[in-house]
């Protein structure tokens, strides 16, 4: 469907939040897409000055609003619209290439240049003067990884690995003690598997399989003995349906 027939449903600062909503809409049969300006994935920190927009066909706008309203409260809080940071202007980009360092006026953006290419981007998302998100780049200009401090306590709690410019692995510290608890594995840049390893445990306590980023099957080791014993299915919207013991 052409972009001329699409309208903006809502917008976000974080791409992951926007993707969550897009997956919900697509599961409901709506052809939702993201609109951003990140140079084809080469500059994930550059977004539209309106934020990352979720577009839907004009004819499906009302139904899309209804689906958006049905997102669980905890998810809705995660994807709540924040004031978007400004987009880099052509002047900013030119200065980055010539000088190697650019500082934005909303929060703080610092680009570290190594001779002829940007090596990393340091971002202060809450404007407290402390870097809370960093992206790293190779000589080809593609992102190689990054990490973030999502609760702004000065410690990293989310780590990303990219392969050939596409996200490959994400690890998150959900209790903010410095040790990853859950990891997401991606296939062609789309989440395919979620593994829960509380405090870096060797044994996976919960594994979720995803298709097109939407959960389809969950395995749980309820007694923590190293063997999955409970299996749960999901409907087309990613909601849990039936649970049953794993057949051994």
Detail the topology: elements first, then pairings.
Blueprint: E1 6-12, H1 15-27, E2 33-35, E3 52-57, H2 61-69, H3 73-78, H4 90-98, E4 108-114, E5 117-124, E6 133-137, E7 143-148, E8 158-163, E9 166-172, E10 182-187, E11 190-196, E12 206-211, E13 214-220, E14 230-234, E15 240-245
Antiparallel strand pairs: 1-3, 2-3, 4-5, 5-6, 6-7, 7-8, 8-9, 9-10, 10-11, 11-12, 12-13, 13-14, 14-15
Description:
The chain has 248 residues and is of the alpha+beta class. It has a domain at 1-87: Alpha-Beta Plaits (2-Layer Sandwich), CATH 3.30.70. The protein has helices at 15-27, 61-69, 73-78, 90-98; strands at residues 6-12, 33-35, 52-57, 108-114, 117-124, 133-137, 143-148, 158-163, 166-172, 182-187, 190-196, 206-211, 214-220, 230-234, 240-245. Residues 38-49 and 73-107 have low confidence and may be disordered.
Attribute tags:
248 residues, alpha+beta, Alpha-Beta Plaits, 3-stranded antiparallel sheet, 15% helix, 37% strand, globular
The ordered H/E elements are EHEEHHHEEEEEEEEEEEE
CATH architecture of the domain at 1-87: 2-Layer Sandwich
Radius of gyration: 20 Å
N- and C-termini, Cα separation: 47 Å
The counted number of beta strands is: 15
The CATH topology annotation of the domain at 1-87 reads as: Alpha-Beta Plaits
Q: How many H/I helical runs?
A: 4
Q: What ranges have pLDDT less than 50 throughout 5 or more consecutive residues?
A: 38-49, 73-107
CATH class of the domain at 1-87 reads Alpha Beta
Sheet having the most strands:
12 strands, antiparallel
Task: State the oligomer.
Answer: single chain
Q: How much strand? A: 35-45%
Keywords: Membrane, Transmembrane, Transmembrane helix
Protein name: DUF2007 domain-containing protein
């Amino acid at each position: 469907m052409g972009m001329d027939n699409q309208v903006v449903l809502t917008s976000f600062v974080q791409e992951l939040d926007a993707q969550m909503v897009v997956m919900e809409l697509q599961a409901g049969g709506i052809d939702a897409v993201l609109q951003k300006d990140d140079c084809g994935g080469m500059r994930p920190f550059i977004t539209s000055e309106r934020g990352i927009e979720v577009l839907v066909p004009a004819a499906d706008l009302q139904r899309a609003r209804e689906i958006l309203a049905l997102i669980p409260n905890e998810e809705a809080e995660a994807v709540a619209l924040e004031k978007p940071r400004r987009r880099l202007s052509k002047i900013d980009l030119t200065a980055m290439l010539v000088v190697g360092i650019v500082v934005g006026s909303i929060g703080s953006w610092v680009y570290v240049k190594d001779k002829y290419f940007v090596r990393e981007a340091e971002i202060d998302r809450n404007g407290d003067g402390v870097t809370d998100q960093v992206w790293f780049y190779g000589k080809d200009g593609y992102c190689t990884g990054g990490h973030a401090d999502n609760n702004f306590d000065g410690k990293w709690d989310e780590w990303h690995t990219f392969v050939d410019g596409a996200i490959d692995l994400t690890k998150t510290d959900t209790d903010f003690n410095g040790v990853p608890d859950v990891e997401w594995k991606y296939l062609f840049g789309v989440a395919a598997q979620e593994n829960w390893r509380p405090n870096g445990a060797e044994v996976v306590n919960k594994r979720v399989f995803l298709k097109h980023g939407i959960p389809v099957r969950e395995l749980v080791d309820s007694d923590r003995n190293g063997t999955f014993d409970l299996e749960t299915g999901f409907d087309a919207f990613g909601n849990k349906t039936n649970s049953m013991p794993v057949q051994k």
